C-alpha cells in the first residue's frame, strides 16, 4: 500500500490522539490502512420491522416499533435493574437495563412510539431485550442506508462512544478520503476470469453497501484476494524449494521385495499401497520429498513408514523416526524392532532417558553407518546426533513439532536434505490441508484395515456410573482391558489431578478384584513406562490416566475407552482418544461421561462422536465449531491473519483462489512481468506487515 495508508489515525476526523490510543490498544489499529480493513462482521437490515408476536428466540436481532406502557426499577444495589414494559398492536414485551439506569429513565417517554433494536431472549413467556438501542420513530425514518454495518468493538471503546455506530461515522469519513487512493492489487486477467469487482469498489461497498447484491460481490472479491495472496506465497515457497533442494535418489527395493515376500504380516490396504507409491515416486525423483501423510488413528501409518524406511536402506541411506513423546517413541521402537530384526537391520531407540553409555554407542554407530534405523524423541535433534547418510526423516504426529524443528532435521545431511515424511492422525479437510501445509505434498490413507469393527460410542451422564461400572466388569470378565481417561489442563492442573486421584480411588474400590494402573503427566518417565508396560502385558485390567495416553499407544486387547468429563475435551482430542481402542478383533466401545448440564457446543461435540467414526467428518464439525484459528499450524501459515475470509465456510473460494495463484505462477514463476508488478509489491508488503505484527505482539 502507498504511504497514504500508513498515515496514523491520530488526526483522522472523529478520532483524535486519545481515541487513537484506544484503537491501538483495543484493536491493534494504528494506521488508515488498518482501520479501513476493520470490516463490518455483519449488517443490520434496518428496513425490516418485527411485530412483537412474530419474535422468536432464533432471531439474532429484532427491530420493533412499540410504545412504553410502564417503567419500574427492580432489586437493590448491584442487582438493580430497570424494566420497561412495551407493546404494539400484537403483543407485549420487556426491555431491561442493568447500567445507566438514570440516563435511560430520562430518555424513556411513556406513550410515545420508539424503535427498539436488540437481541431477544425469552424469560418465562415474555420476550425481553437487554440494553436495546432505541430512537424516537422520526429519526429512524430518515435513515437512508439499506444495510447498516456492524463493526467489532470492545467495552472500552464503547465507553468512549466508539460503539459500532461511532466507528461507522469515522469510517464514513475515512472511506471518502481513501477511495481515490485505493489501488488495484490483482492482475486484470484474474479480475476478469473470476468476475471480481475492483479493489476500490469492494472496499467502499463492504463498509457501505448500496444493495445486498453488490455487498456479496464485495465480500467475494476481498475473500478471494486474501486467499489468493496466502496461496501465492505458499506455492511460491514450494516452487523455490523444489527448484533448490535436490534429493538423494532412493530407488532401490531389494529389502522391500524380501519383506513383502517373507514377512509382511497382513495385506496392505489399497490406501496404504497408494501412499507408498506416492512416497516412492518422490524418493526416487531426484527432488527432495516433503510429504504429509494424513490418516485416521489406526489406519496403519506405521507400516507405510516402515516400508519407506526399507526403500531408504536398500538405497544405502539411513532413516530416523521422531515421535513427540517417550512412550510413543518406545512403542514405535518395540513395534519396528521385530520387523527390523527379521530383516537383519540394526535399530535403536534414543530418548531423554537413554543411558550415557548407550547414547555414545548410538552416536558412533549412526556416524559409521552401522546403525540403520534410529527411533526417538526430540533427543534426535541434538547436534551431537550425526549420521553417515540420513536419507529419510519421518516425523510422527506432526502437530507437536514446529516448522523450526523440522528444519533442524534437514540439517542432518550436508550433501542432500533428507526426504521428509510427516505423519499426522489429525484429519483436516483437504482444502484446509492444502493451505496449512501448502508447502508439503499430501497423501491420505482414507481406508481402514479390513475386519475392523466400528467402535460403538455412547454418551452417559454421571448418574449412570453404576451401570457403566457394571458394563466395565462384564468386559473385563470377557478378558478385555479398559482405559479411563481424565482431562488435564494446565490452568486447572491441581484440581484435575485431584479429580484423577479420586477417580482412581473410586475405581479401585469398585473393582477390588482387579489390579488398576494409573499414569499421569507428573510421574517420572520410568514410572510411567513401568505402569504402561504392566497394562500392555495385561497384568492390570484398567488404566486410569490423563491424556498422556492420547498419542499412539497400541494395546489391541483394550476394547473400552471411558472418557470422564468428556465435555471438556475438544472433538479431535476425543477422536484421538477413541482411536486407542478398536485395534483388535473384538467389538470396542467408547463411553463419554459428562455432567447433566452441557453447553450447546458440548452437545454437538458429543452427538458427533456418537454419530460417526469418520475422522474427516469429525474434523469438519470441529472446524465449524472452533473456527480455524485454533487449528494447529494456522499460525505459521499466515491463515490466522485472515481478516474476512473464513476457512470453514469459504472453501470454494479458497479453491478458486488457489487455482488463480497456480495459473499466475505457471505464466510467470518469478512474477517479473510488468503487469504482475502489483502482485509482487503486495507480497512484499505482506512480508513487511508480518514482521511488524510479530514486533508488536
Ligand atoms: P496409526 O495410523 O494410528 O499409526 P498403526 O500404524 O499403529 O496406526 O496401525 C494400527 C494397527 O493396525 C497396528 O496394530 C497395525 O499392525 C495394524 N495394521 C496396519 N496396517 C494393516 C493392514 N493393512 N491390515 C491389518 N492390520 C493392519
Ligand atoms: Mg501411529
UniProtKB/TrEMBL annotation:
Q: Could you tell me which InterPro entries the record lists for this protein? A: ATP-dep_DNA_helicase_RecG (IPR004609), DEAD/DEAH_box_helicase_dom (IPR011545), Helicase_ATP-bd (IPR014001), Helicase_C-like (IPR001650), NA-bd_OB-fold (IPR012340), P-loop_NTPase (IPR027417), RecG/Mfd (IPR047112), RecG_dom3_C (IPR045562)
**EC id:** 5.6.2.4
- Helicase ATP-binding domain ranges (all copies): 282-445
Q: Does the keyword DNA repair apply?
A: yes
| Entry superkingdom | Bacteria
Sorted alphabetically, the Gene Ontology BP terms of this entry are:
DNA recombination; DNA repair
Free-text function comment from the UniProt entry: Plays a critical role in recombination and DNA repair. Helps process Holliday junction intermediates to mature products by catalyzing branch migration. Has replication fork regression activity, unwinds stalled or blocked replication forks to make a HJ that can be resolved. Has a DNA unwinding activity characteristic of a DNA helicase with 3'-5' polarity.
Which PANTHER family does this chain map to? ATP-DEPENDENT DNA HELICASE HOMOLOG RECG, CHLOROPLASTIC
Tell me which family the UniProt entry assigns to this protein.
Belongs to the helicase family. RecG subfamily.
**What is the protein named?**
ATP-dependent DNA helicase RecG
Which organism does this sequence originate in?
Aquiflexum gelatinilyticum
Question: What is the name of the gene encoding this protein?
Answer: recG
Amino acid at each position: 500500500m502507498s504511504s497514504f495508508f500508513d498515515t496514523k489515525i491520530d488526526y483522522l476526523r472523529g478520532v483524535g490522539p486519545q481515541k487513537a490510543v484506544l484503537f491501538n490498544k483495543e484493536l491493534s489499529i494504528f494506521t488508515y490502512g488498518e482501520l479501513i480493513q476493520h470490516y463490518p462482521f455483519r449488517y443490520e437490515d434496518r428496513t425490516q420491522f418485527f411485530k412483537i408476536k412474530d419474535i422468536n428466540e432464533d432471531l439474532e436481532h429484532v427491530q420493533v416499533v412499540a410504545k412504553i406502557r410502564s417503567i419500574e426499577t427492580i432489586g437493590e444495589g448491584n442487582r438493580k435493574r430497570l424494566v420497561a414494559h412495551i407493546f404494539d398492536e400484537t403483543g407485549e414485551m420487556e426491555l431491561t437495563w442493568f447500567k445507566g439506569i438514570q440516563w435511560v429513565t430520562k430518555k424513556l417517554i411513556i406513550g410515545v412510539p420508539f424503535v427498539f433494536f436488540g437481541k431477544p431472549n425469552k424469560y418465562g413467556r415474555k420476550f425481553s431485550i437487554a440494553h436495546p438501542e432505541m430512537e424516537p420513530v422520526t429519526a429512524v425514518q430518515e435513515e437512508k442506508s439499506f444495510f447498516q454495518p456492524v463493526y467489532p468493538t470492545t467495552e472500552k471503546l464503547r465507553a468512549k462512544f466508539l460503539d459500532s455506530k461511532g466507528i461507522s461515522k469515522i469510517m464514513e469519513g475515512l472511506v471518502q478520503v481513501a477511495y481515490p487512493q485505493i489501488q488495484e492489487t490483482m492482475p486484470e486477467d484474474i479480475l476478469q476470469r473470476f468476475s471480481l469487482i475492483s479493489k476500490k469498489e469492494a472496499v467502499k461497498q463492504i463498509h457501505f453497501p448500496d444493495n445486498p447484491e453488490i455487498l456479496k460481490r464485495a465480500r467475494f472479491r476481498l475473500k478471494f484476494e486474501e486467499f489468493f495472496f496466502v496461496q501465492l506465497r505458499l506455492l511460491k515457497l514450494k516452487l523455490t524449494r523444489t527448484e533448490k533442494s535436490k534429493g538423494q535418489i532412493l530407488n532401490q527395493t531389494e529389502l522391500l521385495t524380501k519383506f513383502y515376500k517373507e514377512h509382511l504380516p497382513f495385506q496392505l490396504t489399497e490406501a496404504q499401497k497408494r501412499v507408498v507409491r506416492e512416497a516412492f515416486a518422490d524418493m526416487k525423483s531426484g527432488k527432495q520429498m516433503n510429504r504429509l501423510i494424513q490418516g485416521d488413528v489406526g489406519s496403519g501409518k506405521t507400516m507405510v513408514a516402515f516400508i519407506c524406511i526399507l526403500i531408504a536402506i536398500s538405497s544405502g541411506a539411513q532413516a530416523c523416526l521422531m515421535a513427540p513423546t517417550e512412550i510413543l517413541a518406545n512403542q514405535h521402537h518395540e513395534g519396528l524392532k521385530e520387523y527390523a530384526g527379521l530383516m537383519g537391520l540394526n535399530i535403536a531407540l534414543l530418548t531423554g532417558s537413554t543411558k550415557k553409555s548407550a547414547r555414545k554407542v548410538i552416536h558412533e554407530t549412526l556416524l559409521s553407518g552401522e546403525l540403520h534405523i534410529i527411533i526417538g524423541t526430540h533427543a534426535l535433534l541434538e547436534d551431537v546426533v550425526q549420521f553417515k547418510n540420513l536419507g529419510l526423516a519421518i516425523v510422527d504426529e506432526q502437530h507437536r513439532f514446529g516448522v523450526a524443528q523440522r528444519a533442524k532435521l534437514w540439517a542432518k545431511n550436508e550433501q542432500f536434505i533428507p526426504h521428509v515424511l510427516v505423519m499426522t492422525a489429525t484429519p483436516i479437510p483437504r482444502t484446509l490441508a492444502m493451505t496449512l501445509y501448502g508447502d508439503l505434498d499430501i497423501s491420505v490413507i482414507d481406508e481402514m484395515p479390513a475386519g475392523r469393527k466400528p467402535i460403538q460410542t455412547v454418551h452417559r451422564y454421571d448418574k449412570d456410573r453404576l451401570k457403566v461400572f457394571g458394563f466395565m466388569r462384564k468386559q473385563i470378565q470377557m478378558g478385555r482391558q479398559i482405559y479411563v481417561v481424565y482431562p488435564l489442563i494446565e490452568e486447572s492442573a491441581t484440581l484435575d489431578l485431584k479429580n484423577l486421584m479420586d477417580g482412581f480411588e473410586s475405581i479401585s474400590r469398585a473393582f477390588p478384584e482387579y489390579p488398576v494402573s494409573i499414569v499421569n503427566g507428573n510421574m517420572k518417565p520410568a514410572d510411567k513406562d513401568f505402569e504402561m508396560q504392566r497394562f500392555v502385558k495385561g497384568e492390570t485390567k484398567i488404566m486410569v490416566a490423563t491424556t498422556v495416553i492420547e498419542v499412539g499407544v497400541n494395546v489391541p486387547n483394550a476394547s473400552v475407552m471411558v472418557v470422564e468429563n468428556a465435555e471438556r475435551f475438544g472433538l479431535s482430542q476425543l477422536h484421538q482418544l477413541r482411536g486407542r481402542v478398536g485395534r483388535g478383533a473384538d467389538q470396542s466401545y467408547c463411553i463419554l461421561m459428562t455432567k447433566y448440564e452441557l453447553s450447546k457446543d458440548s452437545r454437538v461435540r458429543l452427538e458427533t462422536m456418537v454419530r460417526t467414526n469418520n475422522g474427516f467428518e469429525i474434523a469438519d464439525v470441529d472446524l465449524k465449531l472452533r473456527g480455524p484459528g485454533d487449528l494447529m499450524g494456522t499460525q505459521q501459515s499466515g491463515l490466522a491473519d485472515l481478516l474476512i475470509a473464513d476457512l470453514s465456510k469459504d472453501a470454494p473460494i479458497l479453491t478458486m483462489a488457489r487455482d488463480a495463484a497456480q495459473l499466475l505462477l505457471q505464466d510467470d514463476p518469478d512474477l517479473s512481468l510488468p503487469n504482475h508488478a502489483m502482485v509482487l509489491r503486495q507480497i512484499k508488503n505482506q512480508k513487511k506487515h508480518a514482521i511488524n505484527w510479530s514486533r508488536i505482539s
